[in-house]
Specification:
This protein has 5 helices and 5 strands; from the N terminus they run E-E-E-H-E-E-H-H-H-H. The protein has a 3-stranded antiparallel beta sheet, covered by helices on one side. Strands 4-5 form a two-stranded antiparallel ribbon. It is α+β, with helices and mostly antiparallel strands and 181 residues long. The N and C termini lie far apart (47 Å).
Length: 181
C-alpha cells in the first residue's frame, strides 16, 4: 500500500455529502478519498506533522539525551505551535465575520489574513518537522514528504500569499496600489 497522499484543489468541489456539500480540497491515497477540506482545516496538516515532530524529538536520543531537550529543537517547535494557534484564531475571526454578515470588505480582509496565516503556519510546521526528523522526513513511513507538495501549493493556490500581502497593504494600511513589474 502506497503512503503517497495527493491533494487536489479547486474553487468548488461538490462532495455529494449532505453534511459537507462543498469543499475546496480533496486528499486522496491509493484512489481512495481520505478527506475533503476548506480553509478552516488548513492548519490541520501543520498540527499533524508538528505532532509527529514532537513525538520524534521526545524519542530520538543523541549524546544520551532526547533531541527535544535541546533549545535548537525546542524553540523552532514552539514557534511552529504558536504560529498554528495564531492561524486558528485568524480563521475563527474570519468565520465569525462571515456568520455575523459583517462588512464585505472586512470579511475579505479577515479571510485573506486567515488564508495567509494558516498556509504560512503549515509551511513553517512542515519545515520544522522535516528538520527535526532529518533524513527520516523523506521516508515514506512518516508520510511527511507526501504531504509537502500540498502545503507548498496552499501558499499559491487559489491565491498567492504575495498577492494577499499586496492587497492587505492597500486595504488595511492605506498604501498605494502595487506597481506592476
Amino acid at each position: 500500500m502506497s503512503s503517497t497522499i495527493t491533494i487536489f484543489t479547486a474553487r468548488k468541489i461538490i462532495t455529494m455529502n449532505p453534511v459537507r456539500p462543498e469543499a475546496t480540497a480533496v486528499a486522496v491515497r491509493d484512489n481512495r478519498i481520505l478527506g475533503v477540506g476548506t480553509l478552516e482545516e488548513l492548519e490541520g496538516w501543520g498540527e499533524y506533522v508538528l505532532d509527529m515532530a514532537v513525538e520524534h524529538a521526545k524519542k530520538r536520543v543523541i549524546f544520551e539525551e532526547p533531541i527535544g531537550s535541546y533549545q535548537g529543537v525546542q524553540h523552532p517547535l514552539a514557534r511552529a505551535k504558536t504560529d498554528l494557534e495564531l492561524a486558528k484564531l485568524a480563521v475563527t475571526r474570519a468565520v465569525t465575520a462571515c456568520k455575523n454578515k459583517e462588512n464585505r470588505d472586512d470579511i475579505s480582509v479577515y479571510a485573506s489574513i486567515a488564508k495567509y496565516t494558516a498556509t504560512e503556519a503549515a509551511y513553517a510546521a512542515f519545515d520544522v518537522s522535516m528538520q527535526a526528523h532529518g533524513g527520516y522526513s523523506a521516508d515514506r513511513e512518516t508520510g511527511i514528504i507526501a504531504l509537502w507538495p500540498m502545503v507548498l501549493l496552499s501558499r499559491i493556490i487559489p491565491l498567492n500569499n504575495d498577492v494577499i500581502l499586496e492587497k492587505y497593504a492597500e486595504a488595511a494600511l492605506g498604501l498605494p496600489e502595487g506597481a506592476v513589474s
